[in-house]
Write a structure and sequence with these properties.
The complex is a heterodimer of chains A (298) and B (266). Chain A is built from 12 helices and no strands. By secondary structure, chain A is an all-alpha fold. Chain A has a domain of 190 residues: MetI-like fold (Orthogonal Bundle). Chain B is of the alpha/beta class and 266 residues long. Chain B folds into 2 domains: 186 residues, Rossmann fold (3-Layer(aba) Sandwich); 67 residues, no CATH class. Chain B contains 8 helices and 10 strands. In chain B, the strands form 2 sheets. A 6-stranded mixed β-sheet of chain B has the order 6-7-8-3-9-10, with helices on both faces. Chain B has a 4-stranded antiparallel β-sheet with strand order 2-1-4-5, with helices on one face. In chain B, a hairpin with a 2-residue loop joins strand 1 and strand 2. Classes of the chains: A mainly alpha (298), B alpha/beta (266). At the A-B interface, helix 9 and helix 10 of A face strand 6 and helix 2 of B.
Chain lengths: 298, 266
């Protein structure tokens, strides 16, 4: 008896609620115009705040440096004095008299070589240290000491070894970028879940298969954290290294401008350095996302 | 008497940590026939997973030996495929690629590329997951992940399928679905299966024999219960079946009367 009553009640309820709830259909497809508007509004919401702060900062700078006795140029004076530099980035002249693009390009080349070497050696050493307890015990203390040596402190030593500016600068990039890559790779390797190792064991994957199919993908998020820190440090170090070795390159360009008291040129160069550094970081982050897609949220 | 298909002979296991020895398993001996479905049940911490890992070869026994099909077993291998408790699918591979990793490794040189593809799809079909072959593990539910885990293990064509609390992390309804799926696969392929569980109903429903383990330290096999229920089994019919209820009662009595779980017995 009680069961049927219960059923009756349950039967009634949904019927009631179905009447109560009024379903208001929203227009399924909005006209194209409104969608475009909404996208534009979202873009504005993203772009507007940085634009406003940028304008405000330039105004403040103009205000502070507007007096004729100011030791640093105002934005308007930078535009005026360095217009040649800003307008002709691809200018080709004699010796180190080149457009900004070529200076940046020369620096990027050095970074590319030094960083690429650091990636190969860093990942290899990181795998070794992450894999083997003995390598870890033997090498980790040395790494921990060496990584605190400032990048420029390596320069005299490398100049003595290579007897040439260019390879020395590349070596400084290499030695700067390699530590975070080693350390993060090692952490990534050590954090490979036991489950994945068990899968590899049951399948009897050999050393190379394990390296390529389990180890690298599993450690990839960590490795890319190291790569991102590494590229940032490389770009920091190249400017300082080039100041000392001379030749074409953004670092020596800044130093040369200082010696010629072209303060406006320095400011233009700094903006170039910042923007290029930003894109380098984003570039590595983008590759990281591409490679590790799906791995981060297991 | 002929040797059983899989036999564990006098397995002892002691772990040594920071100079203190703890005896986990003592004198575990068990024979399993081909095609048999065995459950190992016991309270948590009694070392039942250790037994499975020793059969899988992932852990070495301190003494004693495991024989499969007349051969001594001392390292992991695909003929003793494991369905891991938390599925252990590789998150950077799709469902298809996860199984293909196993199939390509085990059947390299034995099957052509087309045959290997067909075999992957066959195993996905077996667990009704072919529709999700291009999804990544993060994009499918826990039950589906475990189905793929089972398909991966089956795809190795193991002599023994080892299931380590395969449904422990799933909700009750999903668990029932997967139990039915495993029963169907067992009926279809006749695999030898060993399952670790702490669920009494699951053990009685699926098993030919239930191995009940005493509490650790130094856990041993307390009792082995035959489950003389004809297959195919139906969970709804069994709910009022007398043999089923008797078996269930026997396991419950063993676990809760004679070998009550004492937390942190020191």
């Amino acid at each position: 008896m009680s069961v049927t009553q219960l059923n009756l009640k349950e039967d009634k309820k949904p019927a009631q609620s179905a009447q109560v709830v009024t379903f208001t259909p929203s227009p399924a497809t909005k006209p194209f115009g409104t969608r475009l508007m909404r996208n534009a509004r979202q873009m504005m919401a993203q772009l507007l705040p940085p634009l406003i702060t940028l304008v405000l900062m330039i105004m403040l700078w103009e205000l502070v440096c507007s007096s004729p006795t100011s030791s640093l140029p105002s934005p308007s004076r930078v535009l005026e004095e360095s217009w040649e530099l800003i307008a002709h980035p691809f200018y080709v002249g004699q010796g180190i008299d080149q457009g900004m693009f070529w200076h940046i390009f020369a620096s990027l080349q050095r970074v590319a070589i030094g960083y690429a070497l650091a990636v190969v050696a860093g990942v290899a050493l990181g795998v070794l240290v992450g894999q083997s307890q003995w390598a870890m015990r033997g090498l980790d203390p040395i790494f921990q000491v060496l990584r605190t040596v400032p990048p420029l402190a390596w320069l005299p030593l490398s100049l003595a070894a290579f007897r040439d500016g260019n390879p020395s600068a590349i070596f400084v990039i290499f030695i700067t970028a390699i530590w975070p890559i080693i350390i993060n790779t090692a952490v990534g390797i050590r954090n490979i879940p036991q489950d994945y190792q068990n899968v590899a064991k049951v399948l009897r994957l050999n050393g190379f298969e394990y390296f390529a199919k389990i180890m690298l993908p599993a450690a990839a998020p960590y490795i890319f954290t190291g790569l991102r820190i590494g590229i940032g440090l490389s770009w920091l170090a190249i400017v300082a290294a080039e100041m000392l070795i001379g030749g074409v390159g953004i670092g020596f360009f800044i130093w040369d401008a200082w010696n010629s008291s072209l303060i406006s040129d320095i400011i233009v160069a700094l903006i170039y350095v910042g923007v290029v550094g930003f894109f380098l970081d984003r570039f590595i982050a983008f590759i990281g996302r591409l490679v590790t897609r799906g791995t981060a949220n297991a | 008497m002929a040797q059983p298909y899989l036999s564990l002979e006098f397995i002892d296991k002691t772990f040594e940590r920071n100079g203190t020895r703890s005896e986990v398993l003592k004198q575990i001996s068990l024979g399993v026939d081909k095609g048999e479905f065995i459950s190992i049940i016991g309270h948590s911490g009694c070392g039942k997973s250790t037994v499975l890992n020793i059969i899988a070869g992932l852990i070495d026994a301190t003494s004693g030996a495991v024989f499969l099909d007349g051969k001594h077993v001392d390292a992991p291998g695909p003929e003793r495929a494991v369905v891991f408790q938390n599925h252990s699918l590789l998150p950077w591979l799709t469902v298809y690629e996860n199984i293909d990793l196993a199939v390509s490794k085990v059947f390299r040189g034995k099957k052509s590329k087309a045959e290997r593809h067909a075999w992957v799809m066959h195993n996905l079909d077996l667990v009704q997951m072919a529709h999700a072959k291009d999804k990544r593990p993060a994009e499918i539910s826990g039950g589906m992940k475990q189905r793929v885990g089972i398909a991966r293990a089956l795809s190795m064509e193991p002599k023994v399928l080892l299931l380590d609390e395969p449904f422990g992390a799933l909700d009750a309804l999903t668990r029932a679905h997967l139990q039915d799926a495993v029963m169907e696969i067992h009926a279809r392929l006749g695999n030898t299966m060993i399952m670790i569980t702490h669920d009494v109903d699951e053990a009685v429903l699926l098993s030919d024999r239930i191995v009940m383990m005493t509490n650790g330290p130094a856990a041993k096999i307390g009792e082995i219960l035959d489950v003389p229920i004809a297959r195919p089994r139906n969970r709804i019919e069994l709910a009022s079946d007398r043999t089923y209820l008797k078996c269930r009662e026997a396991v419950l009595k063993f676990l809760y009367e004679r070998h009550r779980f004492v937390e942190a017995a020191e």
